[in-house]
Amino acid sequence: MLPGVGVFGTGQTVRALVPLLQKEGFPVQAVWGRTQEEAESLASELDIPFSTNKTDDVLLHPEVHLVCILTPPPHTRQIAVKALGIGKNVISEQAATLTDACKMVTAARYYPQLMSIMGNSLRFLPAFVQMKRLLGEGYCGNLQVCEARVYGGSLLSQSYGWAWEELMGGGGLHTVGSCIIDLLSHLTGRRAVRVHGMLRTFVRQGGPAGGIRSVTADDYACFQLLMNGGVVCSVTLNFNLPGTDVHEIMLVGSSGRLVARGTELYGQRASMQVEERLLSDGGEAVGPSVRGLNGMVTQLRLSFQAQEDRRSWVRHPVSMAASFEDGLYVQTVVDAIKRSNRTGEWESVEVKIQDVDSNHNHRTLPN
Q1: Which of 56, 165, 221, 311 is most buried, by the most CB atoms less than 10 A from its CB?
Q2: Angle at 137 between CA 134 and CA 141, to 5 degrees
Q3: Which helix or strand (DSSP H or E) is residue 147 part of?
Q4: Distance between start and end Cα atoms, the chain
Q5: What is the DSSP string of 149-203?
Q6: Closest CA to 121 of 150, 96, 155, 94
Q7: If you ran DSSP here, which 8-state letter would residue 327 be given?
Q8: Residue 201 CB contacts under 8 Å (≥ 6 apart), including other chains
Q9: Are strands 205-206 and 347-348 parallel, antiparallel or unpaired?
Q10: Which of 253, 228, 224, 254 is nearest to 237 (CA)?
């Protein structure tokens, strides 16, 4: 018995996720949109029986036991904390701020029996699953350097919205960089201790007539992470390249390297003359995030399917998912990169969880 799903959001990820959930047998019962019209339009398009622009209507829906939050970042924390508080399992995107991420961790710790995972689907992409396994088996020897490149067209929406505003969680660092920071930590089993970064906004104005609203969200980010154990990570994100779609992660060690390009995996040991293809994309023309979503939804089904109660789940199938604690770490790194961009200095990464919600009836929990 798979749980009924309530989905928050009407963007491209929702359009990819809902059919995958339905294909795996999850009944998608409700969808929330910013406006009633947006919600109704998506519900009609994806065959979802209930639509609304009121969050409580989804959270209190009697057939919804699993909540997927793919809203603009400023809404994320409020929905996630409330959902956990009324006994719903939660899959969430990154929150907008460090304070929000702290509140989400506090709620997740208070309700440990409920699922509370981040929606970074890259962890479930077969290329990265195999990359992590091969790294652990010693394919690269001692890991030394990680490099990541993501290039693409503009992340700005056609009309003014949260994606234009850095303080609302817009920009390449927050929306794409967060997933890369999390992925690098997942692949290597290490966390950043110090960071250095530079952010730029090259497209500073936007709007149908040009120059109507100013843009504060970054469209270029270049940053370095010094991980515990001395591993160095270098990441470049550039969203000023329309028509390109580059997504490459390379791990270099003392005796070899592994490279994920899009959804394919390549490797070359020091003893080899040319690199070998270790995993092909199978001819499917889908990007890494959507392909990863496919793997994530399959693991979700395995987590819930053997349970008699629709709300119950087992941890093992989704053990590779990012936790809310991982989300807090990522937000801490993002904030440190922003700080470095302002100061021009290397900044330290210190993950702290404080009792930031005085209205909540729980206190600070030990780290």
Answers
A1: 221
A2: 90
A3: strand 143-151
A4: 35
A5: EEE-S----SSSSGGG-GGGT-SHIIIIIHHHHHHHHHHHT--EEEEEEEEE-S-
A6: 94
A7: H
A8: 171, 215, 216, 217, 218, 219, 220
A9: unpaired
A10: 224
State the chain's mean pLDDT as an integer.
91
**pLDDT tens digit sequence for 19-44:** 999 999 999 999 999 999 999 999 99
Token duo for residue 19:
């059919």
Q: What is the pLDDT of residues 176-229, one digit of tens each?
A: 999 999 999 999 999 999 999 999 998 877 766 555 778 888 999 999 999 999
Alpha carbons 92 and 37: distance in angstroms, whole number = 23
Rounded Cα distance between 5 and 27, Å, is 6
Looking up tokens 């609302």 gives 168
**Torsion sign, CA atoms 230, 249, 173, 129:** negative
Give the Cα separation of 305 and 318 in Å (integer).
13
Handedness of CA 131, 169, 31, 91 (dihedral sign): positive
Shortest CA distance to 357 belongs to which of 66, 85, 68?
Answer: 85
Q: Which tokens go with 272?
A: 């080899």
Residues 289 and 121: their CA atoms lie apart, in Å, by 6
Separation of alpha carbons 319 and 117, rounded Å: 10
